[in-house]
Amino acid sequence: MRHARRRIVRRVTRLAAVGGLLLGSAMVTRAVASEPPGPSAAQGATVRSAGDTAAALVERLGGSRTAGSWLGADGRPVVAVTDEEAAAEVRRAGGRPKTVSHSMNELKSATRTLGSAPRVPGTAWALDYRSNQVVVRGDSTVSAGDWSKLTHVAGGIGTFVRMERTEGTFTTRLNGALPILSTAGRCSAGFNVTDGQRDFILTAGHCGPNGSVWFADNRGRDQVGSTVRQNFPGADFSLVRYEGGDAGAGADVVAIGDGQGVRITGAGDPSVGQQVFRSGSTSGLRGGTVTALNATVNYPEGTVTGLIETNVCAEPGDSGGPMFSEGIALGLTSGGSGDCASGGTTFFQPVTKAMAEVGVQLITAASQGAGQQSTAPAPEPSDPQGAAAPGAATPGSSAPVGGGGEGAQLLARLADPRNVGPGLLIVAGSLVALVATRFIRAEQDRKAYQRYYSATWG
Length: 458
Hints:
With 458 residues, the chain is α+β, with helices and mostly antiparallel strands. Helices cover 31% and strands 31% of the residues. The protein contains 8 helices and 25 strands. The protein has a 6-stranded antiparallel beta barrel with strand order 18-19-20-23-22-21. Strands 12-13-14-11-10-24 form a 6-stranded antiparallel beta sheet, with helices on one face.
């Protein structure tokens, strides 16, 4: 009976080992065959390419013949045009034209007229390319008298200025992805940047004036750095210089919660209709779409222009946090209205304009390895026509917050089911099991042989 049980155990072990060999081989073959060509997702790359194609068309045709662009539901670029010749050029470039009544020059002229009127805190306006209108919004703090005066100004411009009242209030939003604290308040780290000699945090300008000292704890023991450049109002960004001049390991990662982050591979400008993501310490990682560009917001503290308007929700505690998509840095959380229970509108400072103003570049994860400095956006795709829908976008490749050494990277690669590591481990374990069972059987046969001849020859 004991020998029968041993034979059954050996047979089950051999079968399991053979099955492991087959499974491991299949995993390795699949991983090698599906290995991605680079660190950027192909879908996100084609979405960015579609936006770049549309922006190039708008720039080439000019403000008198176009009125902005956006991404359609299928991810293809749509360009608003004012004449048939411009429409034909858009078609030749692979985009879809939409004929509109008012040019970009007319839309911008309307915003200049609105901006020259007496300032009303709690109001905002932006260019809605898809409706070919300028949308003016007033929050709950705007009085009936002030709203009536602004409506009169809009009526003098034309019917393409649309007036809307919105719930809540337009306020700046403090805090964010990883909190930094000072006597000026609690804010957030946006993106790590460098001037080639020292490293900085790029964050919201309303977080604090020049000279503000920032800490990573509420006891003032872990000093992060100090604000050396602020722009608010007008724009909404500032530079916090690291105390030691070095951002340290993991500088190319933005936090998204639970100790995880997203690697940043470059910077760019978003397109209307593009899906984007925002990270903040209050409401975590949230997604939405870009609804308008060149937005103006009249905060109680002052007016900020040139902002990105989105329907991504945010709450007090999220300001300064990063906005990104497919690992591309896009903006810094400025302010907005509403919350993540009922939804709302959130505005972002474009990160490319902020970096150009202060002369810094992102610290990014370059394709040759993490932690390298780069000013270049993600690689351009070769097929701008085959754009993926904006809804297919992702935040970007994940990474642990704080970075990691070669050992951590190797462990992550082995644990990733898309890579060959797990398959190789299963193959190796199966081979060890087969060798072990063969050795055990040979040893048992040898002992049985010895016992048999010992009994025979006495």
